[in-house]
Amino acid sequence: MLHGIFYCIILNKPIGIFDSGVGGLTVASAIKRMLPNESFVYFGDTRHSPYGDKSEETIRQYSQRITKFLLEQDCKAIVIACNTASALAYQVLCDSHPHIPIINVVDPVVNHVGSKINNKVGIIATRATIKSDMYRKKLKRLNPKLHIATAATPLLVGVVEEGFMNTKVSAGAIEAYLGSKKFADVTTMILGCTHFPLLQREIERFFEGRAEVVDSPELVAHYLKMVLQKAGLSSTTSEAKYRFIVSEKTPSFARIAKMFFGEDIKLEEIVLR
Amino acid sequence: MLHGIFYCIILNKPIGIFDSGVGGLTVASAIKRMLPNESFVYFGDTRHSPYGDKSEETIRQYSQRITKFLLEQDCKAIVIACNTASALAYQVLCDSHPHIPIINVVDPVVNHVGSKINNKVGIIATRATIKSDMYRKKLKRLNPKLHIATAATPLLVGVVEEGFMNTKVSAGAIEAYLGSKKFADVTTMILGCTHFPLLQREIERFFEGRAEVVDSPELVAHYLKMVLQKAGLSSTTSEAKYRFIVSEKTPSFARIAKMFFGEDIKLEEIVLR
User: Alpha carbon of A87 to those of A19, A90, A105, A162, A193: distances in Å?
Assistant: First the structure.
């Protein structure tokens, strides 16, 4: 009996989700929608945001510190809801914490896209993610026949954070970045940054049905569901709780968090030492 | 005689210039043009860039550390070539270093603009600079009759860093930000971010001659010249030397430094502890 109670306590522990800032809230939102029984602790490292232009070593240090904090909050699994950290810090986090399920936002997308034959894949992301070449390497490992074109599109992050979706600015930036010849014949487009789901419809319109634009947050939430089920860690409660922590409370985080998560949220500030 | 030599050595010491990243190179470039005999050490805090969304305390800490470093490099004067740090850290730096001439990028512009009667002034800058309200406060102190309208325009930073000047993207962003009713009747426009001089011509075109768009780097260089002359610190050599240091060598810094400075530069990486 006691054993059963303790087991339930473990199951009902929260999931730890982290990102360099607000983008990961698109993933948190998909997790809330798809796994309504799961609690989570979200950590947005706004003090060091954006990660996109930082060095590998710096991003690994930050990711290690945040993961340590989330495990201290008793998280049963970790979701790296940041493409840059997924590309640069995933392996080192798995090596440091072999008994905790850790998932990143790259693998679920790679598994979905890489299995398709004759696929011509386009990838857009921050500079650090593109430079890491993670998506290309993982896709090629799964399916060496894929044709892959990539581009760093850092301005799209700001376009979303400024709420310039569905304006001349977003249209101009999407056209400038995606109008490149290398993307002319892609059949699948990967949005390799957690900010970009907010531009998904516009990017779909840009391709006029010629390319599938992948919904990464949904794929990640689906993958998390599978991993938890497989590990026997799915929550048994229907009273999910959510915490939203930032390393620096900025006016912009508060302003746009709602846009990313889809509802008002209460922010706590915690500085990690 | 010896005394004279020592005096010359002091005069020919470099000027320390710092910014959160690359933007301050527009100021460094104006200093090089206007004070060709002055050497300088430029420090771009790319590891912590951008400052625009960071807290006052954080920006003050970074500015103190960089100033300490520049004085260790034997700088005879400090130029805060960053609007956010000028707004938030200038006073604390002056208090800590009363014997070193320290100039910021706000005062020269305020002195130029504030003296004009019946002026309607528009100010665009990062969120932190606008939130500090520094330009408005200083302008009002100089001339309480001024009409002042402000807006945070953070996307313009990314537009410049991505090289999207003179495109639909820059045009769309300028229109979205400056097309606001509050800027409709401004007679002077202050570009309160060291990135924005690269958009000066486009912003001038947007206003179709209705507003003077202030050339901040030129005003700052001119002000520095005056301060050095007044303090008897003008260089006597014609062999100016330039050092460019960043706290993190990023591909984007190297790529766009040339754009900001107007010529190729060699970057050193130094991490401040």
Answer: 12, 6, 9, 26, 11
Q: Residue A155 is part of a domain; what is its CATH number?
A: 3.40.50.1860
Closest CA–CA distance from residue B138 to any residue of chain A (Å): 24
Instruction: Tell me the C-alpha distance between A108 and A27, whole Å.
Output: 12
CA distance B197 to chain A (A): 19
Q: What is the pLDDT of residues B12-61, one digit of tens each?
A: 899 999 999 989 999 999 999 999 999 999 999 998 887 876 788 999 99
In chain B, helix, strand, coil percent, each to 5?
Answer: 50, 15, 35
The pLDDT assigned to A1 comes to 47
Chain B nearest CA to A193, separation (Å): 16
Summarize pLDDT for B191-248 with one digit per residue, the tens: 999 999 999 999 999 999 999 999 999 999 999 999 999 999 999 888 899 999 999 9
**Closest C-alpha to A123, from A105, A96, A103:** A105
Residue A229 and residue A210 share a domain: no
Domain boundary among B173, B188, B216: B216
A166 touches B at CB < 8 Å: no
Task: Give the residue from B182, B201, B216 where a domain finishes.
Answer: B216
Contact list, B162 vs chain A (CB under 8 Å): 154-155
Cβ of residue B132 closer than 8 Å to a chain A Cβ? no
Q: Which residues of chain A neighbour B251 with C-beta distances below 8 Å?
A: 127, 131
Task: Determine, for residues A53 and B252 on separate chains, whether the beta-carbon distance falls below 8 Å.
Answer: yes
The ipTM is 0.78
Q: Where in the sequence is the domain holding B207, given as residue range(s)? A: 107-216
- Which chain A residues are closer than 8 Å to B157 by Cβ? 158
Number of domains forming the structure of chain A? 2
Give the tens place of pLDDT for each residue, A112-141: 998 887 789 999 998 878 988 999 999 999
Q: Does B158 touch chain A (CB under 8 A)?
A: yes
Q: Which of B18, B80, B75 is nearest to B45 (CA)?
A: B18
Q: In this structure, are B138 and B194 located in the same domain?
A: yes
Place of tokens 């008994």: A99
Q: Are A41 and A70 in contact (CB under 8 A)?
A: yes
Average pLDDT over residues B72-84: 96
